[in-house]
User: Which sequence fits this backbone?
């Protein structure tokens, strides 16, 4: 290979990239965002504590996956504020037991609205219609009955948090 060919090959390798980047370094957030306030989400549903579960999952995901400083209330030192609203939460039968006619599995559905704004009120990220589902089985054996709806909502909240943080950081 000639010197010219080697130089072109080195240039091609140097300018090629796979598109990966370090977690916590947002591609679409301004460089001056270091502190994110995540006040408790609001719920428009009748599901007990759903907004707390969703808020806690998002805070945990930001703390685990990013280098942002997360605070739990809107304060002047926050560079951005993430607000969320649980629009609806429901559990509906998904499958029935053919012998008893009772529900055998349920589907939990949560609809969320999220907005991230900077301290001047400029919208940095917004999604008015997140929709998440999680299925769980109902126990048929009453002596060993275990309520599975709470773990299902926990799994759903973690999935939502992972998706939200990835969307904010990686601009999907």
Assistant:
């Amino acid at each position: 290979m000639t010197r010219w060919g080697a130089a072109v090959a080195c240039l091609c390798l140097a300018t090629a990239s796979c598109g990966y980047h370090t977690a916590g370094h947002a591609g679409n957030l301004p460089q001056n965002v270091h502190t994110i306030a995540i006040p408790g989400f609001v719920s428009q549903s009748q599901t007990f504590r759903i907004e707390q579960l969703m808020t806690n999952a998002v805070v945990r995901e930001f703390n685990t996956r990013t280098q942002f400083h997360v605070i739990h209330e809107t304060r002047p030192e926050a560079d951005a504020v993430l607000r969320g609203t649980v629009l609806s939460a429901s559990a509906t039968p998904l499958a029935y037991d053919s012998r008893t006619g009772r529900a055998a599995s349920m589907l939990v559905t949560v609809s969320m609205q999220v907005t991230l704004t900077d301290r001047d009120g400029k919208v940095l990220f917004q999604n008015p219609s997140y929709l998440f589902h999680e299925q769980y089985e109902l126990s048929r054996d009453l002596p060993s009955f275990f309520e599975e709806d709470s773990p299902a909502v926990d799994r759903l909240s973690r999935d939502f948090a992972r998706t939200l943080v990835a969307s904010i950081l990686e601009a999907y």
About this structure: Confidence is low (pLDDT under 50) at residues 5-26. The domain at 3-170 is CATH 3.40.50.10610 (Rossmann fold). The helical segments are 3-15, 50-65, 149-170.
